[in-house]
């Protein structure tokens, strides 16, 4: 029996749960329920409070977060007992725990500091990074379970540079999105494609400036992804992922426009956040393909497979 299959599915399941947690958190913000439980870690001083719709949103978000913590703890204990499987996941597990602890602290600070913009934005960034680490590790384990290593074509220096630029643009864009949301600047530009009905960028200051920069960064990200998709068009799986990322950026721009034109309906706002998280995951997988193509087969993979065979 493949010894990496069960932990691979465990990491994949936790990644899916953390993705749902990100989307649920976006729904909590969109419904204005971020302070429905005004204290932390309890809610109105109780473990299970009296519910209305807003409290139910916030409490269910906390419940799912607690489930993810318990899930990672169970998965860690399971992997720790299988020494031959521990080698390829030890560092990612440590990183995942560091991110999770940071995320829990940020979740508490977000409530205690009354939705301070920096806590909301940091909470989003760390949560998405945690999800990516879980997904990356799951992919590693699934590949280790196959007899043959996946074929990866060489990646040129220009492609690596463009990928780094794309990843930085995406980091900037997600950060800007968190700031736009936490500053309630979603309608600072009330029309599309122009900001005020006349100009694409009437101002670069204040809330309008924040919204304008967010839009311009989205356009730059699409151009960067378009070029990346072209450069990797013959790069196998990496090219497929890059094309998926390019399409997702284009869809995200369309959903962002719809969000403005429909004056921020909660469903569209949540979808916008879900697509952003999905784009981070796809970009992370593109980076993973590039990293593993740098040396044709990473030594860690050989060491892990040898350990599996010996075990």
How would you summarize the topology of this molecule?
Blueprint: H1 5-30, H2 53-80, H3 83-112, H4 117-144, H5 157-182, H6 206-231, H7 237-261, H8 266-294, H9 299-310
Q: What class do helices, strands and sheet pairing give?
A: mainly alpha
H/E topology pattern: HHHHHHHHH
Strand content: under 5%
Distance between the termini: 12 Å
Q: Helix fraction? A: over 70%
| Number of spatially distinct domains | 2
Gist of the model:
The protein has helices at residues 5-30, 53-80, 83-112, 117-144, 157-182, 206-231, 237-261, 266-294, 299-310.
Can you describe this structure?
Helices cover 74% and strands 0% of the residues. The protein contains nine helices and no strands. The chain has 311 residues and is an all-alpha fold. α3 (83-112) runs antiparallel to α4. It has two domains: 1-149 and 296-311, no CATH class; 153-295, no CATH class. 40% of the residues are buried. The longest helix is centred in the first third of the chain and has 30 residues, at 83-112.
